[in-house]
Design brief:
Length: 270
């Protein structure tokens, strides 16, 4: 839990990304009826059934991180890469973040309580965010299955992305950046408890100086997943990855698209 609290303090000290040209919103509600603030960004090319990508932000951050090229996420670069590749991109605020912030239940405070042995409210924040992400994805996929369904997340977003992939087989691609170590005792929200169900094509990015997401812990997650196509890359940095991580994501997406296309061509020729 010490790692979790320190991570929260680190991200709180970072500048908040400024929104730039947000797209239209998606009208979707969580299982408890709460509105899920979600932006939709349309891809280049105007395809009728484009691949889709759901991007999940980190602890104390907000969906607008994916609209800015600033650190710590540099998410606007990834968003632009996906739009150019033809993905329709969806951005949502986690519970108690962004438009959903609540001064009576700040994420930092919940992390502190978890560190002090009272994890219930932190667990609820993550589990509610997971259910919200699933609700958004269910709404997006209601009209049919796109050729690719990507879920990507940074830090806490990577934690949620792993959990979502474990429970949603319609997800085909998974990209996770520095998923934080979560004590396995928090079984509902600890990725280590769910990795046996992660079968998607997966790119995992970690850092060798990251106290919040130690490489050894991330490697254990990686090895536990039965994904047939997966790649683990480690950077010489701390929890805030260098901007170059985005080039690794771009290359992986291109290779994954080529391999998926080759598989479809072979299946059609049979």
């Amino acid at each position: 839990m010490t790692r979790l609290l320190s991570l929260c303090l680190l991200l709180l000290s970072a500048s908040v990304a400024r929104a730039a040209d947000p797209g239209p919103s998606l009208d979707v509600r969580g299982a408890d009826g709460e509105r899920i603030p979600t932006l939709v960004l349309e891809p280049e090319g105007g395809a009728t059934n484009p691949p889709v990508a759901l991007l999940l932000h980190g602890l104390t951050r907000r969906k607008e991180d994916w609209l800015s090229a600033e650190g710590p996420t540099h998410g606007g670069v990834l968003k632009d890469t996906l739009l150019r590749a033809g993905y329709r991109v969806y951005l949502l605020d986690a519970r108690l973040h962004g438009e959903r912030a609540n001064p009576e239940a700040r994420p930092g405070k919940l992390a502190k309580l978890a560190h002090q042995g009272e994890p219930a409210r932190y667990v609820k924040m993550i589990s509610d965010t997971l259910r919200d992400a699933h609700a958004v994805l269910t709404t997006v996929l209601a009209k049919g299955q796109p050729p690719r369904v990507l879920v990507a997340g940074y830090s806490m977003g990577a934690q949620v992305a792993l959990l979502l992939a474990a429970h949603e087989p319609r997800v085909t691609q998974l990209v996770t950046m520095v998923p934080p170590h979560i004590d396995p005792s928090m079984e509902e929200i600890a990725p280590s408890r769910h990795m046996a169900k992660v079968q998607q094509d997966w790119l995992l990015l970690t850092a060798n100086q990251d106290d919040f997401a130690p490489v050894a812990d991330s490697r254990a997650l990686f090895e536990a997943a039965p994904s047939r196509r997966k790649l683990h890359k480690t950077f010489d940095s701390g929890h805030a990855l260098p901007r170059e991580y985005l080039e690794e994501v771009r290359r992986w997406l291109e290779e994954d698209r080529r391999e998926s296309g080759s598989k479809r061509d072979k299946a059609s020729a049979r």
